[in-house]
């Protein structure tokens, strides 16, 4: 399985996942030109797309979807609630509703959508399995739900939100209501909250953790890396036995993992 986070954060989200037979994107919150540039930078191509999966209807996850679907004629998979809340997505030709909580297949890729706690209509994260490898993508969540904690142990790789440092939010420029929303149970996951969750629930199988959806205002990449790595009790980049911790970026692709 090959994967790369092409962009992550409020400036636009998109993740590329490919197996030998199947190629998908999760979310697309930027335009075609930017997508092409990022794919090129990552050494990836997208002449064919088997599906575009959406986590929820917020603009940073869907703004680029209509244009890409016109280009590649790929089916767009989302929850019923996501479709209901987003008129632009209702205009698309090839929408499919995904079941939540029961696995389905896209080619040789097994996918399971699970609910996440976020202020959208019916937001989900995804678990992926193929070729003996399992991974999980969960961004935009105020707190880890039971489903996430249960899936964590069996995953080889994780893309999880490490949105903010609580002290930076409290000292930062956002109005109080926005700070409360951000740090609330339906907002975004902090570096420390992710660290605590991984420390308690991560299994021995996990080799890579990609930190996603970092805030530009309320976080620093090095701080996120340090706080999560510290919780996992290994130096940045991973110790002998622990997983390697990687950053994702707003405007350029992450490392490409080939597992
Ligand atoms: Zn988002
Ligand atoms: Zn969101």
Characteristics:
globular; binds zinc ion; alpha/beta; Metallo-beta-lactamase, Chain A; about 260 residues; 7-stranded mixed β-sheet
Structure commentary:
The protein is an alpha/beta fold and 259 residues long. It has one domain: Ribonuclease Z/Hydroxyacylglutathione hydrolase-like (Metallo-beta-lactamase, Chain A, 4-Layer Sandwich), CATH 3.60.15.10. It is built from ten helices and 14 strands. It has helices at residues 32-42, 59-62, 65-72, 80-85, 87-90, 146-152, 166-171, 176-183, 191-201, 221-231; strands at 2-7, 14-18, 23-26, 51-53, 76-78, 95-97, 104-106, 109-115, 124-130, 133-138, 157-161, 208-212, 244-247, 257-258. It has a seven-stranded mixed β-sheet. A seven-stranded mixed β-sheet has the order 7-8-9-10-11-12-13, with helices on one face. Strand 12 (208-212), helix 10 and strand 13 form a beta-alpha-beta unit. Helix 9 (191-201) runs parallel beside helix 10 (221-231). The termini are close together. The mean pLDDT is 95.
